[in-house]
Amino acid sequence: PVDAITNRSKESNTTVVSSFSDIDLDAAAKAATGATLALVFINADSGEHALTVEGKAGDRNNLSAWHSEYSLVNAVAALTNNTIGVVNAVGPVLVEAWIDHSNVTALIWSGVPGQEAGMQLLVDVSWGDYNPSGRLPYAVATNQRDYPAQIDFHSSSSITQIPYNEGTFIDYRHFDSVWITALGRVNLHL
Predict the structure, then answer these.
(1) Residue 152: is its pLDDT beyond 60?
(2) Facing residues of 27 across strands?
(3) Domain of residue 172, residue span
(4) 121: confidence class by pLDDT, cuts 50, 70, 90
(5) Which residues touch 160 (CB under 8 Å, ≥6 apart)?
(6) Per-residue pLDDT, 186
(7) 8-state DSSP, 116
């Protein structure tokens, strides 16, 4: 997205400073120092065992972002009072470690945006050219305890048995049934 952001920034004579490491908090802090706006990208990916990345293969085992990226958001937000979290993920991700930080002013949930169209859309949303009104296809809770199942799944069985005891009370229906306000119902857009 840095190319699309840089190209758009040239129109307003805005300087873009980037840090491409999601684990180097010092580099992130250096890039954020003195910034009037910071976009912090976090990621949680998965696949169907077709690819193994950093020891992760197949479906996600938990709702965490990769590389402790919560620390990244908090490090940048500590230095920039207008920090926007951008979540690139295939499903829900825990945001409780940073969503209530006073300097996190917005959250853009971009899903898996793609190389070109998704990044241009991010620029259009960030600059106010487009007001998103979509809905996510899944519920996102504010806190991990709000999810009905707490799973860090590891199985030695070749056939996994999953008891579906929740009936129809999944996703938003679960949150509604136990009076939990899902993050997406309040202020979350694509």
Answers:
(1) no
(2) none
(3) 2-187
(4) confident
(5) none
(6) 43
(7) T
Q: For the purposes of burial, counting CB atoms within 10 Å of the CB of 11, is it exposed (0-12), middle (13-18) or buried (19 or more)?
A: exposed
Q: What is the DSSP string of 165-188?
A: TTTT--THHHHHHTT---HHHHH-
Give per-residue burial for 143-182: e unless 16+ CB within 10 Å, then b: eeebbbeeeeeeeeeeeeeeeeeeeeeebbebbeeeebeb
pLDDT one-digit tens code per residue, 79-119: 999 999 999 888 888 898 999 999 999 888 888 887 766 67
- For residue 128, pLDDT beyond 70: yes
Give the count of domains, the chain. Answer: 1
- Distance (Å) of CA 157 to CA 52, 161, 163: 20, 9, 15
User: What span, in angstroms and rounded, lies between the C-alpha atoms of 76 and 110?
Assistant: 20
Q: Which two tokens stand for residue 80?
A: 């920039």
Question: For residues 142 and 95, is the Cβ–Cβ distance under 8 A?
Answer: yes
Q: How far is CA 178 from CA 44, 169, 172, 174, in A?
A: 27, 10, 10, 6
Residue 55's CATH number: 3.40.50.1700
